[in-house]
């Protein structure tokens, strides 16, 4: 798996999202309370941009008139038809058997660790001030 630096962590603060492009793929990166999720930017229903969607929580009910809200910000709602996808798994909550947005593995590593990795590149003087977000494909 190749590793790609897509953003400084400071560019995606908690509660925000950023659209990045890696090897021709559009990936929406979400920061939910400091936890990062990567998901395909294309809604599998009709192709809406999930990076442009709102993040919401899960609402469940055990009986009429009683609701429980949980997992705030862990779902993205497609701006075109409001289909919702779990950022952890990519599964749709409309019909999870048929539709799923592709999730991507993400990690946050220090700039120093990236410089020490197995990369071969011309080097220049570099200073490290922030952490970087890395997408693995």
Question: How many beta-strand elements?
Answer: 9
Number of domains: 1
H/E topology pattern: EEEEEEEEHE
CATH homologous superfamily identity: Rieske [2Fe-2S] iron-sulphur domain
Kindly, what is the distance between the CA atoms of the first and last residues, rounded to a whole number of angstroms?
5 Å
| Rg of Cα set | 17 Å
- Indicate the structural class: mainly beta
Structure description:
With 137 residues, the protein is mainly β. The chain has a single domain, classed as 3-layer Sandwich (Rieske Iron-sulfur Protein). It contains one helix and nine strands, in the order ββββββββαβ. A hairpin with a 2-residue loop joins β3 (25-32) and β4 (35-40). The chain is globular. It starts with a strand and ends with a strand. The model is unreliable at 118-128 (pLDDT under 50).
